[in-house]
Amino acid sequence: MIAFEHVGKRYGGRFEALAHLDFRVERGEMVFLTGHSGAGKSSLLRLIMRLEKPSRGRVMVAGHDIAQLHASQVPFYRRQIGVVFQDHQLLFDRSVFHNVSLPLEIQGIEPRETARRVRAALDKVGLLHREKALPVELSGGEQQRVGIARAVVNKPSLLLADEPTGNLDPQLSTDIMGLFEDFNRIGTTVMIASHDLALIARLRHRILRLRDGRLVADEGAV
Amino acid sequence: MKPSATPKRPKGAAPKASRAKARAPVRQEATKPRSRGGANSHQTRFSSRLRAWGRHHRAMSWDSFYRLVRHPVGNLLTMLAIAIALVLPAALWLTLDSARLLDAELDESATLTVYLQTAVDTAQAERIEQAVSAEEAVLDTRMISAEQGMAEFQQSLGLDDALAGLDDNPLPASIVVRPQSVEPAAMQQLAGTLEALAGVDEVRVDLAWVERLRHLAALGRRVALALGVLFGLGVLLVVGNTIRLAVESRRREIEVVMLIGATHAFVRRPFLYSGAWYGLGGGLLALGLLGLGNHWLSLPVAALAASYGASFSLPQLDMTGATILLSCSTLLGWLGAWLAVTRHLTSIRPR
């Protein structure tokens, strides 16, 4: 699903955020990405989202070198990836329903189908009863679940999450990780950046450990 | 960017059965990753894509309209600025249009006067008129005999008594010639030809004032064009600046939708509609201002014209003119928005 081939990323010509990255993530795998803040977790995810291009090497997603994508193709590529952000990236002037429906709206899915899929996604994260609420009326955990619903409403084959449990208490964090495991169980490839070592150790999935932009450990690989 | 899909179902009315139904497809479809997602984006039939496109256009045109109505004062001021920029060139254009009408009338009255020698008698005069009519460059002719000339002269001057005292009629017979072409050069040439005819004393061409008026009209048209271009640029700037601020205020929203795969066209659309609405609103206001100005000036203009013994009314914008004005303003608004958004989108990168 994802293959990094000798990938390096420099910012501003000097600072080396990532170096010599070489790994593969198979279809249907669930992988944690860990390391200190500044170790390059977010940079790695940004490369996969094609928010940036690598300075060296190739990033292959589903068999395509995504650096080769033309700017006009990038939106269509991003539609195939669900992303959960640490700060949710919700729009605060619209309801939960309309936040979750955004990806479908962008794709021009017809309203009835949209409503059906949005409710299915909200049901999955247990927020169907809050569909008319505004994000500010929700707790942090609920906001994060709305973010997850938005990421999966499109049924992406790849789900990325950047510190999805960053500001949540342990119980909520476990719940959220449980959700990701559910999606992984039905075939979605999941990659989660997190520094909550205790939590991810308990979950027994493959862990990629980054330090100073280098891959220092690849534990539990299949 | 308000979604068109508003959930109509009242709160709490989601029956359990439909929840269960809604839940199943996610599982089924998600077990076939990518192939399904790919199928959705690639195999979507053209017509359904077209429908989605139309749906988004409809939704965005209304959404941008509501945004406009929600802040009426500020947006009205923007439209007024556009209207003022449009009124000046439009008014000038109208004035020139009426000048063109006047010009056509002048062409009609552009004539040469052939004065015959006083010795020429009526029969000779008729022969000369025939000779003049035979000229290719002559459209038609009208003979003014010495007597008629005298009568007209008396009438126009009101000097009956003084002229009645004259023994002889000092006026020559004359032929008024309407030429085929009113071009100055052609008329000069015709005058030369006619002057060479036997029995012709003098040919008068009074072209100077026609020419002057022509030059003035040409100048006016250029000024109108220059003003039109300048003020059109002004409209672009006004709309562009307004849209730039709108983009800035919705920056976060734009970043988010770009993160989840919105194309530039999708992001641009609501702003283009806003621009077009600004243009249309400005155009309508400009029409109103033109009507108002017309009303305001019509009385003094009529009085002025009457003092010259003419009837002249200010020209009004007809249906075609109004349509042209509105389409131009709408187009300018759209273009201004396009320039502003396109310029700005490159600076917005999702974080």
UniProtKB/TrEMBL annotation, chain A:
Keywords: ATP-binding, Cell cycle, Cell division, Cell membrane, Membrane, Nucleotide-binding. GO terms for cellular component: plasma membrane. GO terms for biological process: cell division. It is found in: Cell inner membrane; Cell membrane. It is a peripheral membrane protein. It comes from the Bacteria. Residues 2-222 form the ABC transporter domain. Part of the ABC transporter FtsEX involved in cellular division. Important for assembly or stability of the septal ring. One of its GO terms (molecular function) is ATP hydrolysis activity. NCBIfam families: FtsE. This is Cell division ATP-binding protein FtsE. The keyword Cell membrane applies. The gene is ftsE. Transmembrane segments: none annotated. Homodimer. Forms a membrane-associated complex with FtsX. Belongs to the ABC transporter superfamily. PANTHER family: CELL DIVISION ATP-BINDING PROTEIN FTSE, IMPORT ATP-BINDING PROTEIN. The lineage of its organism: Bacteria, Pseudomonadati, Pseudomonadota, Gammaproteobacteria, Oceanospirillales. The keyword Hydrolase does not apply.
From TrEMBL, chain B:
It is found in: Cell inner membrane. The chain crosses the membrane at residues 76-96, 223-243, 276-299, 319-341. The keyword Amino-acid biosynthesis does not apply. Residues 227-342 form the ABC3 transporter permease C-terminal domain. Gene3D superfamilies: 3.30.70.3040. Keywords: Cell cycle, Cell division, Cell inner membrane, Cell membrane, Membrane, Transmembrane, Transmembrane helix. InterPro entries: ABC3_permease_C, FtsX, FtsX_ECD, FtsX_proteobact-type. Forms a membrane-associated complex with FtsE. Part of the ABC transporter FtsEX involved in cellular division. This is Cell division protein FtsX. It comes from Vreelandella songnenensis.
